[in-house]
Design brief:
This protein has 281 residues and is an alpha/beta fold. The protein has one domain: Ribokinase (UDP-N-acetylmuramoyl-L-alanine:D-glutamate ligase, 3-Layer(aba) Sandwich). Helix content is 30%, strand content 27%. The protein has helices at residues 40-50, 65-77, 138-147, 164-169, 177-183, 228-241, 246-259, 273-280, and strands spanning 3-7, 11-17, 32-38, 54-61, 80-86, 93-99, 105-110, 129-132, 151-155, 172-176, 193-197, 203-207, 210-215. Strands 5-4-1-8-9-10-11-12-13 form a nine-stranded mixed β-sheet, with helices on both faces. Helix 1 (40-50) crosses helix 6 (228-241) and helix 7 (246-259) crosses helix 8 (273-280). The longest helix has 14 residues, at 228-241. The radius of gyration is 17 Å and the shape is globular. Bound molecules: alpha-D-ribofuranose. The site of alpha-D-ribofuranose (RIB) has 16 residues, from strand 2, helix 1, strand 7 and helix 6.
């Protein structure tokens, strides 16, 4: 069982499931409202745990009631939360999410306490692998990248300018196709592997411009794509750290990401390893 550390965000997701996503300036009605624990960091931590890893999580939340609601499934799932700091006078992060009947989503995040994860007070964990994303300050991610001694995976989401040291220290970078286009040639600073996801069309794994593996997800009925990328990130990291081949690891990650789209909500939908194996078979 690998020990995975995750440094990242915690959000409470307020979700409206509607027939379709609104265009700018439009009101779409008749949605169903839900509240789910979310945040890319928290989702990746719980995904790793459900896939069988020991997981320690470093994050910031507020001291409001949203904090416990947002951490509830991590706590219940057995993620080590001793690195989660409660910060006074700031709200816990909130994500406003619209999910269409097709499962596609739109997300707006109010980061709140996630902005308080400061590089100077960051305790970089000791673990087999560290996973970061970009919903916490980039200079904290850069410090973690420079100091962490182990397999370093970074999900460059949401897309934003990052210190080149993050790319230079990454053993694995994960982007979706929109993010890959946004980062363009700057990703060539990464000498590790780059995984690019294409939704239902699968994913590729490449190293310095050479594609080393391709995989497609199993066909499933999509309900909500929220946290599919987070699950893919956790699954690929675990599979590579376990020593699976690039092909097998990518296939496992595609199946895990697909499994996470079969239920509503970010964290309620995260699959166990048995769920993923069942889907692969
Ligand atoms: O990746 C999905 C996550 O993005 C959601 O849970 C939401 O909180 C946003 O951070």
């Amino acid at each position: 069982m690998p020990l995975i550390a995750v440094i990242g965000s915690v959000n409470l997701d307020i979700v409206a499931k509607a027939d379709r996503l609104p265009v700018a300036g439009e009101t779409v009605t008749n949605a169903e409202l839900g509240r789910f624990p979310g945040g890319k960091g928290a989702n990746q931590a719980l995904a790793a745990r459900r896939l069988g890893a020991e997981v320690m999580f470093v994050a910031c939340v507020g001291t409001d009631s949203a904090a416990e609601e947002a951490l509830a499934l991590l706590r219940e799932g057995g993620v080590d939360l001793s690195g989660v700091v409660s910060v006074d006078d700031v709200p816990t992060g909130v994500a406003l999410i619209t999910v269409a009947a097709s499962g596609e989503n739109q997300i707006v995040v109010a980061p709140g306490a996630n902005r308080s994860l400061a590089p100077e007070s960051l305790q970089v964990p000791i673990a087999d692998a560290l996973i970061c994303q970009l919903e916490v300050p980039g200079d904290a991610v850069a410090r973690a990248a420079q100091e962490f001694d182990g397999f370093f995976a970074v999900n460059l989401a949401p897309a934003m300018h990052v210190d080149v040291s993050i790319l230079q220290h990454a053993d694995l970078v994960i982007v979706n196709e929109t993010e890959a286009a946004w980062y363009g040639d700057s990703l060539s600073a990464c000498t590790g592997m780059i995984a690019t996801t294409y939704g239902a069309d699968g994913a590729t794994l490449s190293r310095q411009g050479d594609v080393i593996a391709k995989a497609k997800p199993p066909q499933i009925e999509v309900v909500d794509t929220t946290a599919a990328g987070d699950t893919f990130t956790a699954a690929l990291t675990i599979a590579l750290v376990e020593g699976q081949s690039p092909e097998d690891a990518l296939q496992f990650a595609c199946a895990a990401g697909a499994a996470a789209t079969m239920k509503m909500g970010a964290q309620p939908s995260l699959p166990t390893r048995a769920d993923v194996i069942a889907l692969l078979n």
